[in-house]
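Example for tutorial group B:
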């Protein structure tokens, strides 16, 4: 069999939504996803020398929220700071229930539900790409920079976790408050889990994480409510693009691969049955 047909057949098998188990393609899959997120964080953390613009945009958001009667962030943080158990919980949620949790759930779904793993992966990467465009066109300082309004960086003050630490600077843009992907990505995670399983405990857990994250982003002084709304909109757009890939994009690619492999629709299944009978 010609090499291009062998390669096309291998790619058809590797990209099948119904595929079970782990194969050689999965090594490159994990590597490509890891590279994609690494590039996202490196680009996101590129030096940004727009402090004045970022602070002005943050104050504009404060003015907007005040005009709408929804400037609730000082009250949320005041409540969080009222008890040690609250700020400890919010710090933990903000730091650990974001990317670390997404990686853990993503790996679990990779082995249990390849279709919804792919949907989650694509929606995360696409929304991350959209967010990068906004970070560089509309830099916004987080509330913790507005100390004159009484905001406190709870992660640095109480948990000794500073986003400005030397070891984290290559991955952090201090003026990337809008959109809040902490909120948006927790919503995507909840959506993927709800689609992948009917387990009540799993659904309750991801829904609880979403609610806690919405509180934590404000309680830790890292985001305004406005940032969370924009994060949800950006991630909704990323999800819509990912769903289109599932519905039309990937089937078109697999159709082309089938043509290269000289396999008619359904031909692969018939070939497998024929080979099984021959054995």
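The residue assignment follows.
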């Amino acid at each position: 069999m010609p090499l291009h047909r062998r390669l096309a057949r291998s790619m058809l098998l590797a990209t099948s939504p119904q595929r079970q188990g782990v194969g050689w393609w999965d090594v490159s899959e994990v590597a490509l996803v890891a590279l994609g997120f690494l590039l996202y964080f490196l680009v996101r953390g590129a030096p940004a020398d727009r402090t004045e613009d970022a602070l002005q945009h943050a104050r504009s958001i404060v003015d907007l929220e005040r005009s709408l009667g929804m400037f609730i962030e000082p009250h949320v943080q005041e409540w969080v700071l009222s008890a040690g158990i609250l700020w400890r919980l919010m710090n933990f949620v903000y730091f650990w229930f974001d990317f670390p949790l997404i990686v853990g759930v993503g790996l679990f779904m990779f082995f249990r539900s390849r279709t919804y793993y792919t949907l989650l992966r694509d929606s995360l990467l696409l929304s991350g790409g959209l967010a990068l465009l906004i970070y560089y066109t509309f830099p916004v300082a987080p509330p913790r920079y507005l100390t004159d309004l009484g905001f406190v960086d709870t992660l640095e003050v109480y948990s000794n976790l500073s986003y400005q630490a030397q070891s984290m600077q290559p991955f952090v843009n201090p003026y990337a408050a809008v959109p809040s992907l902490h909120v948006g990505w927790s919503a995507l995670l909840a959506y993927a889990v709800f689609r992948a399983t009917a387990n009540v405990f799993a659904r309750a857990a991801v829904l609880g994480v979403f609610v806690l994250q919405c509180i934590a982003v404000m309680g830790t002084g890292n985001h305004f409510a406005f940032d969370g709304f924009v994060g949800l909109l950006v991630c909704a757009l990323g999800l819509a693009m990912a769903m289109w890939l599932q519905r039309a994009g990937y089937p078109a690619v697999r159709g082309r691969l089938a043509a290269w492999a000289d396999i008619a629709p359904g031909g692969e299944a018939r070939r497998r049955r024929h080979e099984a009978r021959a054995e």
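Confidence is low (pLDDT under 50) at residues 267-271, 273-279. Compare this with the pattern of hydrophobic and polar residues in the output above.
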